[in-house]
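Hello forum,

I keep getting stuck at the same step: I have a sequence, I want structure tokens, and every attempt I make locally crashes halfway through. Rather than fight my setup again tonight, could one of you with a working pipeline run this one for me? It's a single chain of 331 residues.
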Amino acid sequence: MKPKLLVARPIFQSVIDDLSAFFDVTSNQPDTPWTPDSWQQAVAGHDAALTTGSDPINGNVLGTNPRLKIAANMAVGYNNFDVPAMTALGVTATNTPDVLTETTADFGFALLMATARRMTESEHYLRAGQWKQWRYDMFAGAEVHGSTLGILGMGRIGQAIARRGAHGFGMNVIYHNRSQLDAAIEIECKARFVDKETLLKTADHLVLVLPYSAQSHHAMGAAEIALMKPSATLINIARGGIVDDAALAVALKNKQIAAAGLDVFEGEPALNPALLTVPNVVLTPHIASSTVHTRMAMAKLAADNLVAYFKAGKALTPLNQLAPKQVDLSS
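Reply #2:
Ran it on my machine without issues. Output:
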């Protein structure tokens, strides 16, 4: 018999068709919302799951689903996975690195530009019929070219943003990371390592690209935002929870910083209602990697991880180190 696979959310039908050659597929193509209980029940009886960042593989799910062997996340982030628990129970975890780096960096820079140049505010003003005449200071925003770009979290996406800023816009790039990058990468990105306090105090535009963890929860809270320049912008394309959204809403209302651009939120798809009351914020619904090409690449890599596991006993991009298993597909 074919291994049983649960596809948790809608994906490209062509990928479902390809997976059906190897798996007995149960697919949530209608995108029926899961409750915690219904999700646990859905995973039950499956050998594998193709998940998105909103589908948890944690102790509760693992404890009631001993048959599960692998969960492939269609995302580079994996804070929905309890990787230590998965490892302890011999369940392989995978993600989709690399395939979304450049697209996400493009969007991050687009969000930075829209925030700095007050595009959302000005569009709302125009659509409301308020534009009657030109003024020298109408929606005057912040310079991007030649300004200081700060990056918190200097992985693949952070480096791609740094290259865009340094090479395309002549920006002075500074960054903070858990560890300093190799000199060759710093030269390529024209980036300089600084401590976090210096980063916050110096950046004209601060982009967050660090992974979410218990340690990075509210890495940007009220105290950190207070260190930023009043003229600075804050861009979050990382994960919700890295920014204290309530504290940010207060800071925006009080003009502690000039503006923010957010693609991710605490508790998304819900968001702090206070963010809807301030004009100086650009809000997008977690779409940084959303191009057809990239989303297809993410879906295919997640699918390839599943097939490789069952054909060769080892996934292509594993997040945990487990001994290879000899598991063959059979029809």
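The longest helix spans residues 292-312. If your local run keeps crashing, start a new thread with the error log.
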